[in-house]
Amino acid sequence: MSASPLLDVRDVSKVFTMGGVLSRKQIKAVNEVSFALSAKKPEIFTIIGESGSGKTTLARMILGSEVPTSGELLFEGKDIAARRGAERLAFMARVQPIFQNPFEAFNPLKRVDRYLASTARRFLNARTEAEMEGPMDEALQHVGLSLREVKGRFPHELSGGQLQRTAIARALISKPSVIVADEPVSMVDASLRMAIVNLFKRLRNELGVTIIYITHDLATAYYISDRIIIMQKGHVVEMGPARPILEAPQHPYSQLLKRSVLSFDGAGGGRITRSGREEVDTSAEALIKGRLKPAGDGRLVRVG
Ligand SMILES: Nc1ncnc2c1ncn2[C@@H]1O[C@H](COP(=O)(O)OP(=O)(O)OP(=O)(O)O)[C@@H](O)[C@H]1O
Predict the structure, then answer these.
(1) Which of 78, 103, 278, 304 has its CA 20 to 30 A from that of 62?
(2) Domain ranges across the chain
(3) 68 CB less than 6 Å from ligand 1?
(4) Helix, strand, coil shares, percent, the chain, to 5
(5) What is the pTM assigned to this prediction?
(6) Residues whose CB falls within 8 Å of the CB of residue 296, separated by 6 or more in sequence, listed in order
(7) What is the mean pLDDT of the chain?
């Protein structure tokens, strides 16, 4: 068996050139980033950073939809950018994306099961209804849904949470080793966020899927991540086990990020109102101090 890491990101940079001949401007979106994910130990590997820090560009290079300007990304020892045709398709089956907005991920005029069926056709070469429906239902069961529940439904007929879980099920159909989830909970109602991130934990534990979780939400990052990297202006400023880093960040930027998220963040670090009466503090600080714990229904509950 090969000893290569599952994913090996080596000194990867991406430069975008903007403007015309006279006003040429270069943006180094990703700057010499390196890390490796183990083939043996599935994990939740989080990429955290504020808007514009290069997270999405890095994710697009991992998915092979953007080619690095320098450095290389290897999946099971082979260059991602060099894969073509059948090799590219096989790679795409193993490394699947989940996007931010489930309502954009699905065509509003297409029934969601048709979307799942086309994924089964593409990656599993399924042809008959039965060949498609078995893996579709299996994937939906992994996210707490079933084919019976979503069959014939249009995206607007499902809740945001159901639709995001369907998007995750779609990603599971090809039995991937890696899921790249770019801000998967930022468009989901705050009360459902923990349910989605708990699902990622289950996929890691039960299916052995490695999750690359891209976010600016320190609270969920703290709660689910095994390791994190913190990015600022394309650079990795801190990398390592998630909890020690988020509890006591060393780099001034990580410290600033933590402070700013604790004081104001509408996307997860802020306050949500439950039942219109009670305020639940979902900030990273609250989680860190252990004042909240996730309840079975995906909400956070106050301890003691
Ligand atoms: N196709 C592109 N052409 C030019 N510049 C780009 C392109 N894609 C990204 N950039 C620039 O690269 C930098 C990093 O962007 P990127 O989207 O990777 O950051 P991000 O951390 O994912 O931010 P966000 O959370 O807002 O998506 C930004 O300055 C952005 O404007």
Answers:
(1) 103
(2) 7-302
(3) no
(4) 40, 25, 35
(5) 0.84
(6) none
(7) 84
